[in-house]
Every structure is written in C-alpha cells, then in structure tokens.
C-alpha cells in the first residue's frame, strides 16, 4: 500500500467516524461580504454542491433549505453580539437534497470588531436528528452537547485539522486527525448509551 492510498483510507475512516456521531463539518461566515463557506457534508445538508460551498455563497442561498419558521429568528440571532464566551449554539431545521427534514446543531465562535459587533463567525455543524424524537428543539437550554468537553474538543480539533491541511503542516494534520478519530469514537459510545437508555421525556426533563 503506497502512502497516498494509506492517507486516503485513513481519511475515509475519519470521515466515517465523524459522520457516525453526526459531525457534518466546518463552516465560516464573513459578515462584511455576507459570504458563507462550508465543508462538503455541510453543503450537502443544505442541498448545495460541495465545490460551491467551499468557494462560498451568499448566506441567503443556504437559507433556502432552512425551515421558514426558523429563518427570521436565525437572522436575528446571527446579528446579535454573542455572549462573553464568544460561543453560540443553536438548532435549525433543514431540508436536504433528498427531501429529508434534519435537525442541525450549529456551534459557532465569533470574532468581534471595534464596536463589539461580530465580523466573522466559524465553527462546526452536527446532525442531531437522532436526538430529537419529540420534534422539538432538543438543546435549547444549556446542556451536555453545549459544554461537554468531548464536544468542545471535537470542535477545536475539527477547526485545527482543517487549518493544518490548508497550511500543509503534515505533522500537525496527523496529530489532529488521530485525536479527532479517538474523540469521535468516545462520542459515539456516549451517544449510543444516551440513545439506548434515554427516552425523549427523560431527556427533556434532564435538560430543564
């Protein structure tokens, strides 16, 4: 097996592990230009061609896939300054290219300008449809997926992994990839336990 083939196989295993815990990938939003960029799986969830998502499209193109009832408050949320932590987490309903309604958790961190308003947002998206048997927003209150160290680590590693690939830092890329794979495995086990042991009613009670 040559090195290139091995790298591709490892990358495929990593994607499989991440998708197994609902990680779609990274996103970024430039407030000045209104351009939204996304990795391949995020783009597909919004019925956008992966290449178009990587190059960037007006955020309104992504909004076409979002449930109409979620668009207005999402715009208001996006425009508001984040809290002291710079972290914002929200959930939206999205219809993908296959016509499936999916619940997407958007985790984002924001860079503020001189006037304290956001100028850049970036983060990851996760498919949390499996957690949402009730048809209600599953994580609208501070809960484990917001602050669980594994989720926080996964977010940081995903961004670091993407950045290391962009700047061609192979050693850092391998380290991030290995840690991502391990973190995804741990999250997968934790998620399976939650879904096996919990009912929607018990889950809502715990969140509240």
From TrEMBL:
Superkingdom classification of source: Bacteria
The name this protein goes by in its record: PAS domain-containing protein
Gene source species: Lichenibacterium ramalinae
């Amino acid at each position: 097996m040559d090195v290139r083939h091995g790298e591709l196989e490892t990358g495929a295993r990593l994607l499989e592990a991440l998708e197994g815990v609902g990680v779609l990938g990274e996103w970024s939003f430039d407030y000045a230009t209104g351009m939204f960029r996304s990795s391949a799986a995020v783009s597909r969830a919004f019925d956008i061609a992966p290449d178009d998502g990587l190059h960037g499209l007006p955020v309104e193109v992504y909004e076409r896939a979002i449930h109409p009832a979620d668009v207005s408050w999402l715009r208001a949320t996006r425009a508001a300054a984040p809290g002291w932590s710079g972290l914002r987490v929200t959930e939206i309903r999205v219809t993908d290219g296959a016509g499936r309604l999916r619940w997407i958790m958007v985790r984002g961190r924001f860079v503020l300008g001189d006037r304290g308003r956001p100028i850049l947002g970036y983060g990851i998206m996760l498919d949390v449809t499996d957690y949402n048997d009730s048809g209600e927003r599953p994580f609208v209150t501070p809960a484990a997926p917001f602050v669980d160290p594994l989720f926080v680590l996964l977010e940081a590693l995903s961004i670091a992994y993407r950045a290391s690939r962009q700047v061609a830092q192979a050693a850092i890329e391998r380290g991030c990839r290995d840690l991502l794979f391990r973190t995804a495995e741990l999250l997968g086990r934790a998620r399976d336990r939650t879904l096996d042991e919990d009912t929607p009613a018990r889950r809502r009670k715990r969140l509240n």
